[in-house]
Design goal:
- The chain is an all-alpha fold and 227 residues long.
- It has a single domain (11-196), classed as Alternative oxidase (Ferritin, Up-down Bundle), CATH 1.20.1260.140.
- The protein contains seven helices and no strands.
- It is 79% helix and 0% strand.
- It has helices at 13-33, 37-66, 73-91, 99-122, 124-150, 161-167, 175-226.
- The radius of gyration is 21 Å and the shape is elongated.
- The protein binds fe (ii) ion (2 copies).
- Residues 48, 84, 135, 138, 186, 189 line the site of one fe (ii) ion (FE2).
Length: 227
């Protein structure tokens, strides 16, 4: 399996919940958009740009509240949100959203901001795992989109100027080149979010080990006092 198609195998209940949630949303997206990849990208990128901003804001507030360093996470997450927004800015030149899609976008944004913030506050780890799985699906969808472009089922076209400037593409770049660089971005977000979930796991395991060590030391000290 190439790095592009890598999949994180769910290892805990939280991972399984994250994967099932992603598969459910994928099913809805497949039913709604079918093979209209341009429109699919427009609507989904409006949602994709939400988690980074919500997570970045919540970590920012936590850092202020607890007076703790963020270990560079805020910048990474805000960059992710910005990058996803640029995917949207690119795709609106490829497919103009219909009136119904604009309504769906508004409802989806409202529901998703609240849902993601709640998930993040309950389980930061699950929230990052969900984005990791979302991005796995995004890579798959862009691979399918690329396949349609390469086989001529969807007509290729010149890359929008905004994309040429943002990704520093050659002036003769086409939509195929744009889909490739966007797919690479999605693979990057996938790896970052899965690794954030892993880091949170490691921190929790370390905390547990330290607590157990402290308990053992306290017990031994108490034993020593009575001997
Ligand atoms: Fe994206
Ligand atoms: Fe993404």
């Amino acid at each position: 399996m190439s790095n592009l198609e890598s999949h994180y195998r769910p290892s805990s209940l939280s991972d399984k919940v994250a994967l099932s949630f992603t598969k459910f949303l994928r099913f809805i997206a497949d039913t709604f958009f079918k093979k209209r990849y341009g429109h699919r990208a427009v609507v989904l990128e409006t949602v994709a740009a939400v988690p980074g901003m919500v997570a970045g804001m919540l970590i920012h507030l936590k850092s202020l509240r607890k007076m703790e360093d963020d270990k560079g996470w805020i910048k990474i997450l805000l960059d992710e949100a910005e990058n996803e927004r640029m995917h949207l800015m690119t795709f609106i030149h490829i497919a103009k959203p219909t009136f119904i899609e604009r309504i769906v976008i508004m409802i989806a944004q409202f529901i998703f901001i609240i849902t993601y913030a709640i998930i993040y506050l309950i389980s930061q780890r699950t929230a990052h795992r969900i984005v990791g799985y979302f991005e796995e699906e995004a890579v798959r969808s862009y691979t399918e989109y690329l396949h349609e472009l390469e086989t001529g089922k969807i007509k290729d076209q010149p890359a929008p100027e905004v994309a040429i400037n943002y990704w520093n593409l050659p002036l003769h770049a086409t939509l195929k080149d744009v889909v490739k660089v966007i797919r690479d971005d999605e693979a990057g977000h996938r790896d970052v979010n899965h690794s954030f979930a892993d880091v949170i796991d490691e921190r929790k395991t370390k905390e547990k080990v330290n607590t157990t060590k402290k308990e053992i030391t306290t017990k031994e000290n108490l034993k020593g006092n009575y001997e």
